[in-house]
Design goal:
Ubiquitin-like (UB roll), 617 residues, homodimer, alpha/beta
Chain lengths: 617, 617
């Protein structure tokens, strides 16, 4: 998440820290928080500098820095951003820079005061916390327990409580055991206050936001009293064991009701375990989690909800439910407060899901005044084009190559993965994650490798390896390019790029580019007409834009038109957890979307084949 | 239910049947249906003459008959009643009578046409039945299943469907398996249509109304498409095993959570079994029961709902919930449609429950223009006084004596129970239910016996047996009165009335009369100011009014001011099952009630002691 420096060559910049008057010189790629630390200026950074806490605010007075990413847009309001405020941990210098450090960002300052700042003005969660302090019944006050609670609620502007019988029994027992005092959590809904949970006075109350990707799940635990993100985590989607992509999982689910249940329960078990761990980290119980927002593609959405997916496996790919879902979290088996709620925003079509709606929400791409393309890269890539207040969306099967899958020496983005490659006359210069000895190539590495191989003439536009090139060797008659010899790798085996690897990248980038081109064609636009390209998704954050443009995955427009925003779907989920208005906004987005089904789109095949060629344009 | 003839002496009346022109002579106590049958005129009587089907309508042209009861008020509208229409099976001649038999009441007439007439104009159930006939999805119609259903609903004036995830899954699977046709049952609620059940097209859809008395449960199975009562039954409340009255059951429940669960689950099991049998009788499954209305006193209401009852066991006797309850029927464990609903109207106080609200609703006593007293006799007797649009209510512990309990030779009203007694100079003349050899005395029998013993000088006003009277014998030193000698009984043992028996009746009638007197005192009225006394409850239907007045249980006002209406609470429950307006009306009733807590009422003890004396007044 956030922006990483794009250059590789290690330029050095001078950073001036005002009003303290310190100066430090750092290499490109060092963020402003690290720079300040190097200068001996301790900024508040409760989260350890990962963009979570929003406390390391600085103001850029002079010089050029990387543009603000989604994490910062979450933590700062527009006025602050336009005044030059940034999160130091998320910002990288692009020139010499002069910074103003506000007093509250220094560790000497009162830290509590600004915690929770992250949520800005939009904090308006779907549940309300009410501290009950009731008059005990006596002979002059014969009101029933519920009447007693309802009149207290009415005095504070809340509608009457509505709950299940067991919840009313729980509330009554709790109140009598706690001297008629309690922290009540309700969900205001259509003229009632739906019972959610009851706690001892002062208990912390939390919510869970989730982006359920086909491959990875991103979870955010948020304090629902002040909006602060308590912790976050990413775990693998356990459904991978039953199919790498959603199409194969749908096929698996269709074999029996047990299979469908298995996919559902494995997913929920994994979430439950991750949540248990997160709650342990911050010292709360899962019963204190009273609200959940989940987004995912339509198949993940249905599998999570236990809805049939058979009809998603064949044309016309109709969802069972496209409407926003408000359910009890226990309906899907989530181990949270028994009365906790679950919200899933609406999806657009069988293959453009609530996760894309969430990404549109987080990036505001749907409401952009500028002509904007949002590309949310995953195993399935969803693309939207906003032009003159119209939104065109499609989904394209980019496959898991960018996750490192289906690549001979591919791996996920972990320590030892080659994430960047330069091929010059001096040879191959790879860099790896955590500077470990290379053991494989991750998505951004293989993308850059293919781009560099094209520049170096090792492959041609069709992706064919040039056997005449001495750097291309033959392995049992198959051409391959040696990236790192066994002697330099962590596992003692060669790391190579094969013709098939190149082809996987061509398929993936061709699918994405074809999607972009078809949306543009629908709107009668050329790639140059687009003023902003927003690239979302974990891979989208780390990919090298120059490489992506060089091989024609993205249109050749000036780099400053691109914005890499990280897991926008997850950020959108968190926004919806914190704000009812954002939920309502998500619902409205779908009404503005003109969906284009690529599988039946006449020009798709031709466009796709054309887009597989590797050429800038 | 319905009115029984009050006299015992067998007068004979002539019945003229027009326009057929038949005449028949019958004894008093023979209803008009039996009279017609005796005359060879076959009236439609689908239910067998028990007031259920509303098909045996006749018009009284000349002569005097018993006044219409609740059963008839249910089956006929006001205009019909004022035109002289009556149900033949519920009406008894009080003089020679001339009847007009409308053609549709003759068996030759089309029977189906008038079935369901019972519900009159008020049929407006809480659930709606919608026959779905949907367009199958195709490439030009990519709407999700739910959108498809919602747009169909919108076209018919229904709000969007709201349901649990499993229900959406069920609906989707059902529609795909049934060519997109289904009978959908929803509950319109606050701008949504709550999913209730889905069936094959044409399936019958039913509802259950229940009056849960401390001793007996009355169940009514109703067709929710036309309002017809399909069948009804009465079963014993199994909680009797854990305490005869609600006070002892509350004490039992308070001992442990298991005990509370036991009382709840035994009750629901009994209801489930009774319902299974009823459904079997009419050829439907319990899954076709989609709506339930239940009434009961506050303790029964809480025990049924699994709500804590501890606080009902001690002053200030505060209910957990006094508000109307709308819940899923499965929350209490009812085996009906999984999505079926359960409604319980609001209660008034810890000891004036939803059953009394239901009785007020059914009798319209709460809205009476005349000054009216409603007495709903049970183990607990609830009493309301309506005067100048104000309703005063109280509850009084009359005990189970009128159910035959706590009486030496007491029994429930079953075959062989003495239900009427005359004591003259010729001796004791008992009559028994079903004319069987006497085996005990039921409530109405012991009431009448005590009244006759008072008239005959066998007991005095204090209830003391007159040992000087030769009809009073001594049994181990205790005075008793021989009602039936062993030689004439069914079991070969004497049936007697003891001093203790008389005292039980005094306690019961004293509690009821004290309640009436205190309400009258609150309103500044005398018994003579009351224009109508409505006596409800099973026992209230069969008691001999003259006897009750003679011993001072009821005020001495002309007999025609009394109306015996049977199980009004049950009828009210059925009305609420059939009509949303009646549910809303029940809610409004409580707002008009001024509740008087007798246990802390200063004058109660004195009034109660005074009311135990047996004297007319």
């Amino acid at each position: 998440m956030g922006n990483h420096p794009q250059g590789i060559g290690k330029k050095r910049f001078k950073i001036d820290l005002e009003p303290i008057g310190r100066r430090v010189e750092v290499e490109a790629g060092v963020n402003l928080l690290e720079a300040a630390q190097k200068a001996g200026v301790d900024l508040v950074a409760s989260c350890g500098g990962i963009g979570l806490c929003g406390t390391c605010r600085v103001r850029v007075i002079q010089g050029e820095v990387t543009p603000p990413g989604l994490t910062e847009e979450e933590a700062l309001d527009l006025q602050q951003i336009s005044s030059g405020y940034r999160l130091a941990c998320q910002t990288f210098p692009l020139s010499d820079v002069r910074l103003d450090i506000p007093p509250e960002s220094l560790t000497a300052a009162q830290q509590l005061q600004i915690e929770g700042y992250e949520v800005a003005a939009q904090f308006d969660p779907a549940v309300s916390i009410i501290d009950l302090d009731l008059h005990e019944p006596d002979l002059d006050d014969l009101r029933s327990d519920l009447t007693r609670v309802n009149e207290y609620l009415a005095g504070r502007g809340f509608a009457p409580l509505q709950g299940e019988l067991a919840q009313m029994a729980e509330l009554s027992t709790f109140l009598r055991a706690h001297d008629w005092q309690a922290r009540l959590v309700v969900r205001p809904w259509d003229g009632t206050s739906l019972f959610t949970a009851v706690f001892a006075p002062g208990s912390q109350v939390a919510g869970l936001a989730m982006d359920m990707g086909s491959t990875k799940l991103a979870l955010y635990l948020v304090d629902l009293e002040n909006g602060a993100t308590l912790t976050r985590t990413g775990v693998m989607n356990p459904q991978i064991a039953y199919g790498e992509d959603v199409v194969s999982r749908i096929a698996f689910a269709n074999k029996s009701a047990e299979n469908l249940n298995l996919l559902q329960s494995r997913l929920v078990e994994t979430i439950n375990l991750a949540l248990l761990e997160m709650c342990g980290q911050v010292g709360i119980t899962v019963a204190q989690v009273v609200d959940v927002v989940a987004v995912g593609n339509t198949a993940m959405h249905h599998l999570f909800c236990g809805l049939p997916v058979q009809q998603l496996g064949a044309a016309p790919y109709v969802p069972v439910v496209s409407e926003p879902i408000n359910a009890r979290a226990r309906e899907v088996g989530l181990r949270v407060a028994d009365g906790a709620w679950l919200f899933l925003p609406n999806n657009i079509a069988g293959y453009v899901g609530a996760d894309h709606v969430s990404a549109l929400l987080a990036t505001h791409a749907y409401a952009a005044q500028k002509t904007t393309v949002l590309v949310d890269i995953g195993t399935n890539t969803e693309i939207s084009l906003t032009h003159q207040q119209r939104v065109y969306s499609c989904s394209t099967a980019s496959g898991p190559a960018f996750e490192g899958a289906h690549i001979r020496d591919g791996m996920r983005a972990a320590a030892g993965a080659i994430d960047k490659v330069r091929i010059t006359s001096q040879g191959v210069q790879p860099t790896t994650i955590a500077d470990a000895a290379p053991v494989g190539i991750c998505g951004s590495g293989i993308l850059m490798a293919v781009s560099e191989m094209l520049s170096a003439g090792i492959i041609d536009e069709r992706g064919v390896l040039n056997r005449a090139d001495q750097r291309v060797r033959s392995n049992n008659g198959r051409a391959e390019f040696l990236l790192v010899p066994a002697s330099s790798t962590g596992h003692g085996r060669d790391i190579v790029v094969t013709r098939k690897d190149v082809n996987e990248i061509q398929l993936a980038k061709g699918a994405i580019r074809a999607g972009i081109n078809i949306l543009l064609a629908e709107a009668g636009l050329s790639p140059q007409d687009v003023e902003e390209y927003i690239i979302a998704g974990a891979f989208g954050t780390y990919l090298d834009l120059n490489s992506a443009i060089h091989i024609g995955m993205f249109p050749a427009v000036p780099l400053e038109r691109y914005r890499q925003v990280g897991n926008a779907a997850g950020v959108g989920a968190k926004q919806m957890l914190l704000s009812r208005r954002q939920r309502a906004e998500a619902t409205r987005i779908v009404g503005r979307v003109h969906y284009i089904e690529l599988t039946t789109y006449p020009a798709f095949t031709g466009t796709f084949v054309e887009a597989m060629y590797m050429k800038t344009g």
